[in-house]
Amino acid sequence: MSEIETSPSDTERDNEGRIVLRLSAEDQIAFAKSLIAPPAPNERLVQAMRLHAEIVMSIPDCE
After folding, report:
1. Would the pTM count as exceeding 0.70?
2. Where is 33: in which H helix or E strand?
């Protein structure tokens, strides 16, 4: 899957200050597909999850 590219003109804020991102039809499909069938975690993400678990589990009262 390719990365979704946006420019500042693709974004705006709604009346409540939330950011609204406008995606092309192709990018909408790519986004939906990635939600339905996300890619497997890469090695950096796996390492980050391990490190997070080690840090969190070392805090008292987290077990």
Report:
1. no
2. helix 25-36
